[in-house]
Design a protein that fits this description.
Length: about 300
């Protein structure tokens, strides 16, 4: 049997089909959790600590747009078809009540290049705050983890941060942080990437383990759809969510029917918006150079 793939993932509710793929459908992989998100996975792909990453579209595209081939990975799959709702949060007692107050403030992010960093520029672009592309109208404060971000907005190290809505909701409900707005990604939210070695092994043919990986994840997605109460049980006992929030989330998310490959148009749209927001500057790498497996390609 071939050696298992090392898959980096974010240990949140979106990882549930991945859990089912391993539990029920013999996904030949070891899981490496990255609670700080996509930016950390990019570093680990570059240093060859993981083979596969499942993370946010904007983080993957931004990393490739900045570093091209040196980023060390290609986009090979589509995990989630629906957009992501980024909730905008501040401290429970902070005198910040609407998005317009955030210009020239301090944004907490997990890492430079992470989704929480990239979406700050998208927020600024939507609100016409970008005087110069790539120059944020915020002071950027990297804080690594969700817990440190929550602490920072309460002790004024940062004024606000952006994180996925349902992951944040528990902390609105218990009064630790306060929600002041939201922004949706204008693209499908989660993609699968493979290290360059895996995406183009064996004389530019993909690693033989990729096909079985896609098949197992597809089966995990089907199982997830057909066993929603088991999904709620897993999310509410093994992850940091209430059963009520897990059920509400189920109505908002749509995983890909076939996770293999990515639509070129999705990548190009992401590049266009990130370039407008100044996250990607210049012509840089083209969409076809970011993609390891295109949708519909055998």
């Amino acid at each position: 049997m071939s050696s298992p793939l090392r898959i980096g993932f974010v240990p949140e509710h979106f990882s549930t089909p991945l859990h089912f793929a391993k539990k029920y459908f013999n996904l030949n992989a070891t899981f490496e959790p990255f609670p700080s998100g996509t930016g950390h996975m990019i570093q680990s792909l570059k240093s060859k600590e993981i083979d596969i990453g499942i993370g946010l579209t904007e983080g993957w595209v931004a990393g490739l747009g900045k570093e091209g081939e040196k980023a060390g990975y290609k986009i090979v799959g589509t995990y989630v078809e629906t957009p992501l709702c980024w909730a905008i949060s501040t401290g429970a007692k902070r005198d910040l009540h609407n998005i317009s107050q955030l210009k020239d403030s301090k944004i907490g992010v997990s890492r430079i290049g992470s989704g929480s960093y990239v979406m700050g520029f998208v927020l600024a672009d939507v609100n016409d705050w970008l005087k110069t592309p790539g120059t944020a109208p915020f002071t950027v404060v990297p804080l690594q983890t969700f817990a440190k971000l929550r602490e920072a907005v309460n002790d004024s190290t940062a004024d606000f941060f952006m994180w996925e809505h349902f992951t944040s909701k528990k902390y609105y409900d218990n009064g630790e942080i306060r929600r002041i707005g939201e922004i949706y990604t204008p693209w499908s939210s989660w993609k699968i990437v493979a290290s360059n070695d895996i995406a183009a092994a064996n004389d530019n043919n993909e690693d033989e383990r990729l096909g079985p990986m896609f098949e197992a994840i597809n089966k995990g997605v089907v199982y997830f759809r057909n066993h929603q109460e088991e999904a709620v049980e897993y999310i509410s006992t093994e992850l940091d969510y209430s059963a009520q929030d897990a059920r509400e989330w189920l109505g908002t998310v749509r995983f890909a029917d076939d996770v293999r490959g990515v639509e070129r148009g999705t990548v190009e749209k992401t590049i266009e918006i990130l370039r407008k927001a100044g996250v990607i500057q210049g012509e840089g790498v083209k969409s076809e150079e970011m993609i390891g497996i295109r949708k519909g390609a055998s």
